Amino acid sequence: MSVQDVIAARVVPHIPPGAVVNLGIGIPTLVADHLPEHAAHLQTENGLLGVGPTPLPGEADPDLVHAGKKPVTARPGASFFASSDSFGMIRGGHVEVAVLGALQIDARGRIANWSVPGKPVLGVGGAMDLLVGARTVVVATTHTAKDGSPKIVEECSYPLTAQRAVDVVVTELATFRVRDGGLVLVDLAEGVTVDEVRARTAAPFRVEVPEAVDA
Q1: How far apart are CA 60 and CA 44, in angstroms?
Q2: Are strands 97-100 and 104-105 parallel, antiparallel or unpaired?
Q3: Do residues 32 and 53 make contact, with C-beta atoms less than 8 angstroms apart?
Q4: Which GO terms describe its molecular function (predicted)?
């Protein structure tokens, strides 16, 4: 299983049964492939409620895509509607969980996920709306960037997506919750130690993992 799929699978326990869930671009879209059938109602900003798993090779419908323009399937009973209605759902608080990717997460749980200085930007997409409108926000991201630098930092050097802090951060190494304005380590991936997480994290965090091993 790829690192990205490992992260996506680790997100699943944070999705309540039957919840309306929006999956952001990138790793979050893979969550659909790890959710049990009918465990949640997946929504995408371009106007579909009832997103299914990634289509098999040769079975993709070019007209059926998510907000990132990648092919999806539709569950039986899915509904299609205008993107304006979709954003009405988001801004109206009708999306229970949003799963977003991130370029950086700061020590307060705020994220930057839409712009890299010096690179062209097509737009912020629905990330700002989801951070403000979704009841719970889960970040699904690799613990470090491609160059090995930490993504969880004291302060974001990229533009923040919103002032609202996320609720949960899930990586291939660990899971953090955001409480009282700070990060709390609540789970370690199998075989990972607290020391390993500290070595790859540039922001302070509290540890609340009873079985954690510092070694």
Answers
A1: 17
A2: unpaired
A3: yes
A4: CoA-transferase activity
Catalytic annotation on 45?
yes
Single out the residue of 169, 172, 215, 171 nearest to residue 194, CA to CA. 215
Adjacent-strand bridge partners of 177: 168, 184
How far apart CA 128 and CA 152 sit, in angstroms, is 19
Q: To which H or E segment does residue 137 belong?
A: strand 136-140
Compute and round to an integer the Cα radius of gyration of the chain. Answer: 17
Cβ–Cβ < 8 Å for 22, 15 = no
> And the tokens for 53?
């798993």
Is residue 144 within 8 A of residue 194, CB to CB? The reply is: no
- Residue 211: partners with Cβ closer than 8 Å, 6 or more residues away: none
pLDDT 10s per residue in the chain (215 long)?
899 999 999 999 999 999 999 999 889 999 999 998 888 999 999 899 999 988 988 889 988 998 878 899 999 999 999 999 999 999 999 999 999 999 999 999 999 998 776 676 666 778 899 999 999 999 999 999 999 999 999 999 999 999 999 999 999 999 999 999 999 999 999 999 999 999 999 999 999 987 654 54
Q: Which of 37, 45, 172, 211 is catalytic?
A: 45
Which residues, at least 6 apart from 177, have a Cβ–Cβ distance to it below 8 Å?
167, 168, 169, 183, 184, 186
